[in-house]
Amino acid sequence: MIRIKKHGILLGPTRLDFENEGVLNPATIQHGDKILLYYRAVKKGNFSTIGYCDLSGPTKVATRLDKPLLAPEYDYESKGIEDPRVVMLDGLYHLTYTAFDGANACGALAVSTDGVNYTKKGLIVAQMDFAMFKQLAETRGRLEESYTLFNMMNPRLWDKDLIFFPRRINGKIYFLHRIKPDIQVVAVNEIADLTQDFWHDYYRSFHDHILLKPKFPHEKSYVGGGCPPVETPHGWLLIYHGVYETSHGYIYSGCAALLDLNDPRKELARLPYPLIVPQKVWEIRGDVDNVCFPTGTVVQGDTLYIYYGAGDEVIAAGSVSLPELLKGLLAHHIA
């Protein structure tokens, strides 16, 4: 059984007003000899912005901003911006995050040429009532009851965990997103194609776009996006999160799957056990207990570093041999 080597807490909350309740769910990307790290910074009252630091090595913080890098500016993100992910695509840093306005929680995009100064592009998923989504999605067959069960508390459609692939595939831009309880995938020619009409058509064939569904005991409640896919000779390595419910609440673990390089809508393999599980005190006790929530990776040589939110309160780092992880995945190839 493959498990990551845990390197401990990388960042914790500070006394600064914007991050005095917690720091979590970091996005990471290599930038020359530095690693850029963007994180969800939470102030008391559960209001989130995006904080920033850079690393001089996989686990060594070099500089850290004392104010948010990105903060709410528009109505669609008025109650907070959360859970960033970042890739380099078409020569630009593409940073995605969840924008929350008090009713809608939807994927939004910001872009940058230097990784520090970002221009917001707004929401790129649809804003609509869940009832409308359900009506469209059942054009070609009924949705599984779990979709209604997980979304019945939110009359609006929550579409989160928006994560781009780090290059075009056969000329198309691909990204993952998550409407509970599954992970879905989108392919478009250009981001500008993501209009309301596009999403209506997409939902009419929604069943065709479901990529990963809960399969194993550690993810039996639901699955969601994690880190941007990592390109390997064997396929796209996807580190995602899986959740299962116990009498003491949900347990969040980091999981691994492999997708086809030329058609990432095809799942090639999946580990039948979690790669990252809550074990340390700072993972099993926090603002939310029993949480390991991976959102960023960096590859250095044969080592994959994984950065994750722990206990919804701190940021931790771990590492695993990339060849060993791929070997483990290929041992569970899906026929």
From TrEMBL:
Report which superkingdom the organism of origin falls in.
Answer: Bacteria
Quote the CDD domains the UniProt record gives.
GH130
| Coiled-coil segments on the chain, per record | none
Write the record's keywords in alphabetical order, separated by commas. Answer: Glycosyltransferase, Hydrolase, Transferase
| The keyword Glycosyltransferase is annotated on this UniProt entry | yes
User: Gene3D superfamilies per the record?
Assistant: Glycosyl hydrolase domain, family 43
Any single Pfam family the record assigns to this protein: Glyco_hydro_130
- In Gene Ontology terms, what is one molecular function of this protein? glycosyltransferase activity
PANTHER family reported in the protein's UniProt record: BLL5143 PROTEIN, GLYCOSIDASE
The UniProt similarity line reads: Belongs to the glycosyl hydrolase 130 family.
For this entry, the protein name equals Predicted glycosyl hydrolase, GH43/DUF377 family
Organism, by scientific name, is Chitinophaga terrae
